[in-house]
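Bug #77: duplicate submission created two jobs. Keeping one. Sequence:
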Amino acid sequence: MKRPKEFSAAERAAVFRVIEERRDIRSYRPEPVPPRLLWKLLEAAHHAASVGFMQPWNFIVVEERALRQGLYEHFRSVNGRAARNYAGERRATYQSLKLQGLLDAPLTLVVTCDPDRGGAHVLGRATVRETDLYSTCLAIQNFWLAARAEGVGVGWMSLMEPDEVARLLGIPRPVIPVAVLTVGYAVEFPDEPMLETVGWRARLPLGEAVYRNRWGEPYAPPDPASAPVDPPPPQPPRSTLAEAAARQANLTKPPGSLGRLEDVVLKVCGIQGVVYPRLKDRVLLLLAGDHGVTAEGVSAYGREVTAKMVYQFIAGAGAVNVFARRTGLRLLVADVGVDHDFSAATGVIAAKVARGTANLCREAAMTEAQARQAVAAGYGIVSGLEGLDLLALGEMGIGNTTAATALACALLAREPEALAGPGTGLGPEGLARKVRVVRQALALHTEARADPWQALRRMGGFEIAALVGAMQAAAERRVPIVLDGFITGAAALAAVRLTPAVRDHLIAGHRSAEPGHGIMLEALGLAPLLDLGMRLGEGSGAALAVGLIEAACATMTEMRTFEEAGIEHTQSTDAKA
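Kept job's structure:
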């Protein structure tokens, strides 16, 4: 059974907006498009539909100045000949148009079509050979729309001779150059297309382009006063969970004999809206950030350790890496606020808001803009994960147990003595100092204690706020969320207060040895799957729990029911049976 992919109202509106605001750009700013962003746009292009899944496109990123100059000179030659097609005022208007950006844009992208890709007999192309070209145009449109969404401008240099472009770039026959695109940050995105603004042509009314049944027969547009388009119905139907429970009750085992594992299975089924849960694409997202409160001596380690541990994670040498490998988790590490430059590192998702928060016991940890950016960072990372079936969460940040303690105290109206723990290994004196710091923060931010957003902003951290955004995105997508320990627990408290629907998607991976974690889980109404005395963080407890969840869910997909096994099944009501 396949889950329908739902989109929020904001996501649906964004699709229509990017289509309407796509523009053919000719004027560019000089700064380059980051390679990672360019690759992201090319991935969007590569996800285009194509006839017979032949994927006939290739993309040539032209960076060499001499080649770009050659393309420019060719454009000038063709453009000059094209101008002769017009006369008088029309020619003057044509010659005033800026139809090229080949030397202004920081890069040029040539998109080609290989008509032989897929062999001589491509499925679906038997009668219309040109569908390979149409498919390539779909890839171009994907690239263009994705670029607009990312604030990158694109221009199509259609005045070119394919043979000459092929010669300049060494493109072999029978590959066809379809488009020469200029790519870069636009000076501006005009409100209207350039050719419409200068009066070259106006957009046709849609009614002139839509017929009913046969060519030329008008299609009446809907009444503007009619009801708006309804959003898709909520998924899944309520009956799905009942169906899953019925199947589980008839598996070849005594009812309830798998204990709480049966509850876990039904929770995953309910979240995903299926009878047979899917856990193929499992991701552990580890979010990292530093904290200004470390200046108060609340940790056994200095804040520089955060960056060092991030390098451990991307090298595959952390405890969480070991557990993730054993449970088949894809580990993603994101920098949302580490006091270090990871630009030269491979394997770190760049989402930095700032190099560490402010000191929460002396001022607000984050500004309003920083807090919103951090939440959006977590939300954006999870929203961009294709086919996600399960999300486990972890964190790294020296000083973050202090931030999490202050946040949880504010949200639960508890005193710091009830929630504060040793964190990275504080002794009695260090723990007493942490309690004093948390109490000082709570006194400073008294008015925020009744407001979950202000509590998060003033006493949280970049990675904690990003965890909130990640949970919100996962809940929107009906993805189970496996929490780790104390820090993710505090983030979950904030996420549930801000977005109550998050609660139904949470699974507690384990109970941390931090004394306040059990109080958090009780407030969330969650029972932990594991209780091993762990307090490492990093997502380590969540990673171990995922293996248990996977095994539990496999009972639903791999075990037979009594009927499937051909075994007579009589439900006993005798408690001693």
